[in-house]
Amino acid sequence: MAGIPLSRRGFCAGLAAGAILGRPAFAAAPTPLTARPATVQLAPEGYAATKVWSYDGTVPGTTLRAKQGGRLTRRLVNELPVPTSVHWHGIRIDNAMDGVAGLTQEPVPAGGSFDYDFVLPDAGTYWYHAHTNSMEQVARGLSGPLIIEEADAYDVDRDEVLMLDDWLLDPETGAFRGGDHPVTLSHAGRTGNLVGTNGQFAFSLPAKRHERLRLRLINAANARIFVLRLAGLEGWTVAVDGMPLPEPEPLSDELVLAPAQRIDLVVDVTAEEGETAGLLRRDTDGTWQPQAMVPVTGQASIARRGVPAALPPNPKMEVSGLKDARRLTMALEGGAMSGLESARYKGRELGFRGLMQEGQFWALAGQAGMADVPFARLSRGETVRLGLTNQTMFPHAMHLHGMHFRTVGADGTLGPMRDTVLTFPNETVEIAFVADNPGKWLLHCHMLGHAASGMTTWIEVA
Ligand code: C2O
Ligand code: CU
């Protein structure tokens, strides 16, 4: 054998010498985030467990926390039997790290890995999820919370993440059922037969009377719009889609949380000791069901606290230049009962039948699915006003990657800054944003079945 025989002893001695000299033997690898199969109990006790695709073996995946202004560095290790990638939803991210297979990166093959490493400009509540065949991969469990902490701790007693989701399971076997039937795709999308919080059917968050909680609600469901209200809790909305509101807004009405949206609440427990407070969800039959139960045990203080302070604003929350903005419009078309006549698909104009044969039921600005050219090419720094006209019979949660936007009201008033907006049938929602993040950015419906069957396009910022 040629060369220097490297005995085990010699190798160890070499390492020790390196250590003595203060030289690390190897560069530290980033912390892994492992996408892998796992078995978890999603259904209530007594029902079968479910084989999921997970991040690090749990559903939701590991809660990632990092400081605003810092970096997030994770090595995606793909132990799934299929290619995958991770999208960091709502982070105003470097385009190369956006995780969109086929647009910003190659999918990571089974057995492969990919190092994600990016700056975190904004504090707030975000989430991460698969962005390769998302309709299937997210439904199978590939999502998790991503919390970016403010420089100074916000004044609450506890900070809790509530990731809301629904699963479509076979009650006998606990196995996932496909949600990709044409009828599902062309209607409201795949809603589950089991709704839960943080991977549990009956999620409970015990608290004390007068305790103040920050609740970070994340809708990780494929298509379900959550309509929520509080019971025995009172409080304020302090942020939406990660972005702080200028002032906390007292909660009175129902909260609507579309797929991919987040709401940060500050709530005080006002129920008496021994009562059960909580977050309720309106079911399709109109009844209110517990989404998260808050059993009240003990008392944190004699009286409630005062009104909370606003969260510190994130950088670049201004959307200026509205008057001279570039104006664009996009029709949302298709789906059941709306009579989409034709749309472009892979460079050809196809009639409704032809589209259906390709599994395409929806179109954005006359285009079904991804095209070679972007919906719009924008120059860096320009302000854009985009009118989204929903000409379908269903609501759609439209999400722009890479940049947050504000809605523009009929009277010109700007809504809160967000990354996902719900549009209803026969409604036009105008959004405005500053195209300040260069790269190729997806714009799609976050009802993932809709995205997979036509409602996905992209823009490019030069
Ligand atoms: Cu939540 Cu295209 O992503
Ligand atoms: Cu949709």
Architecture overview:
Mean pLDDT is 94; it is low at 1-20. The protein has helices at residues 8-20, 134-139, 182-186, 352-357, 448-452; strands at residues 32-40, 50-55, 64-67, 71-78, 86-89, 113-119, 124-130, 143-149, 158-167, 194-197, 207-209, 212-219, 226-231, 233-240, 243-250, 255-257, 262-269, 276-282, 288-299, 326-334, 342-345, 348-351, 362-364, 376-378, 383-390, 396-400, 405-408, 414-418, 420-423, 427-434, 439-445, 456-461. The chain starts with 7 loop residues before the first helix and ends with a strand. It is built from 5 helices and 32 strands. It is mainly beta and 462 residues long. The longest helix is centred in the first third of the chain and has 13 residues, at 8-20. The chain has 3 domains: 31-149, Immunoglobulin-like, CATH 2.60.40.420; 158-299, Immunoglobulin-like (Sandwich); 326-461, Cupredoxins -  blue copper proteins (Immunoglobulin-like, Sandwich). Bound molecules: CU-O-CU linkage and copper (II) ion (CU).
CATH superfamily of the largest domain: Cupredoxins -  blue copper proteins
Number of helices: 5
How much is the radius of gyration in Å? 24 Å
Biggest β-sheet: count, sense, barrel?
A: 6 strands, mixed
Low-confidence stretches: 1-20
Sheet with most strands: strand arrangement: 10-9-12-17-14-15
Give the distance, in angstroms, between the N- and C-terminal Cα atoms: 56 Å
Mean pLDDT: 94
- Strand proportion, as a percent range, falls in 35-45%
CATH second-level architecture of the largest domain: Sandwich
Number of discrete domains: 3
* Hetero ligands: CU-O-CU linkage, copper (II) ion
Strand segment tally: 32
Fraction in helix: under 10%
